[in-house]
Q: What sequence folds into this?
């Protein structure tokens, strides 16, 4: 059963687990489980995704229960009117806070998502970040005897494909567990030494304008258990709670 965070006659929000696709895609033809199908079967009616999270990302995922509502919500995402907050674990020690302002080209599989031909030229993309905690582990992963990591809060100001993952790679602090933009050696160390095999990126909360009432709808969820357990192993629980992040114990 998918955890339902909010439901009314127009919309429904779930806590998407890591390693679940939102919908069918040619890039993962072998996959047979999708959030759209699972939720439809769970509640007994059609649902319309209005945005998406990457397969490896967990957190708040919003659906419409009506095509017109879905169209209005999708426009909010396109107009960059939706506020979102994410949490990630990144390689290295990130700065205290800053803004990543780096244009991103559109990815080919975006053509499949929107169903029409689009420009692939770089588009403006901005992400604000804030470092919540840092650690240096006595484990040699590359050429140094120790390895550094950061717990980072991310606020995307635009909504480009893989924006957070690509932006953190751009500043040389890729997300742990990211097999596309990350570092394989660090990913393997987290899997083998810390028993964490997921991408460490989660959508903690989101605020949209309800398409019927016009009021702000705030949606939030706790970190999944595996992510929460990783924070405990690294001694980051207090830092997470100070940032008002709910953990799954």
A:
């Amino acid at each position: 059963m998918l955890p339902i965070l909010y439901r009314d006659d127009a919309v429904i929000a779930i806590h998407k687990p890591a390693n679940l696709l939102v919908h069918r895609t040619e890039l993962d033809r072998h996959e047979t489980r999708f959030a759209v199908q699972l939720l439809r079967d769970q509640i007994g009616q059609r649902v319309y995704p209005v945005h998406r999270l990457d397969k490896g990302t967990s957190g708040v995922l919003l659906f419409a229960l009506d095509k017109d509502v879905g169209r209005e919500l999708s426009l909010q995402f396109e107009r960059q009117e939706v506020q979102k907050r994410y949490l990630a674990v990144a390689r290295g020690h990130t700065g205290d806070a800053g803004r990543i302002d780096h244009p991103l080209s559109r990815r080919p599989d975006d053509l499949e998502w929107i169903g029409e031909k689009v420009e692939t030229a770089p588009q403006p993309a901005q992400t604000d970040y804030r470092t919540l905690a840092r650690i240096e582990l006595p484990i040699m992963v590359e050429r140094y005897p120790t390895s550094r990591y950061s717990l980072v809060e991310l606020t995307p100001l635009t909504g480009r494909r893989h924006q957070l993952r690509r932006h953190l790679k751009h500043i040389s602090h890729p997300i742990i567990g990211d097999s596309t933009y990350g570092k394989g050696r660090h990913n393997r160390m987290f899997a083998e030494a810390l028993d964490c095999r997921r991408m460490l990126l989660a959508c903690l909360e989101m605020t949209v304008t309800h398409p019927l009432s016009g009021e702000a709808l705030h949606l939030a969820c706790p970190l999944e258990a595996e992510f929460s357990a990783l924070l405990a192993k690294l001694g980051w629980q207090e830092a997470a709670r100070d940032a008002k992040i709910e953990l799954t114990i």
